[in-house]
Amino acid sequence: MSATETETWPWRGMNEGNAPAHRLLASLLEPRPGERWLDVGCGGGGLALELARRGAAVVGVDLAADGVAHARAAALEAGVEAAFEVADACALPYGDGSFDGVASAFGVVFASEPERAAAELARVCRSEGRLGLTLVPRATRTAALWTTLLRHGHPGPHPADWEQRLDELLGGRPRARPPA
């Protein structure tokens, strides 16, 4: 990104602030060397870089071109190999079963069409693959902010709806919950 372009989000700060969640999710998903992983709504690339550090071949996608540019720069700076592309979670440009695992850390929950995004996650993940998400619980400051925004006319679904509707959105796909 050039000095004249403006960022839509403070990507470095977001990566740093979410680093514990990225490490935990990557640890729970246990990516293995040689596996193909997709990080949907990758933002500045934090989770994708964690997956790649563990040996996975990773592609990160996000709607924000400046986030993708930051993720590419962060991977280069960290000496980690990962590919990053601009793409919509509701229309992923990959074939069925293209990935051994699909993950999203606070990204896909902001998709404009949760049903389509969830279907896309399941579609691009191989049938015995792993799917991992970090969600926005209803009883958080982030959820309260979104409730206020929606009340005042911000368009779109509430990101905390994913927590409430996860089984419905993923079509009953078996899932494990993190340890308490």
The CATH homologous superfamily of the domain at 11-134: Vaccinia Virus protein VP39
Instruction: Please give the radius of gyration in angstroms.
Output: 16 Å
Largest sheet: 5 strands, parallel
Order of helices and strands: HEHEHEEHEHH
Number of helices: 6
Helix content: 40-55%
Give the overall shape, derived from the CA principal axes. Answer: globular
* Total strand segments: 5
CATH structural architecture of the domain at 11-134: 3-Layer(aba) Sandwich
Structural write-up:
Helix content is 40%, strand content 18%. The chain is of the alpha/beta class and 180 residues long. It has a domain at 11-134: Vaccinia Virus protein VP39 (Rossmann fold). The protein has a 5-stranded parallel sheet.
Descriptive key words:
alpha/beta, Rossmann fold
Q: In a few lines, what is going on in this structure?
A:
The chain is of the alpha/beta class.
List the helices and strands and how they pair.
Blueprint: H1 11-29, E1 36-40, H2 46-53, E2 57-62, H3 65-78, E3 83-86, E4 99-105, H4 114-124, E5 125-134, H5 141-151, H6 161-169
Parallel strand pairs: 1-2, 1-4, 2-3, 4-5
Helix pairs in contact: 1-2
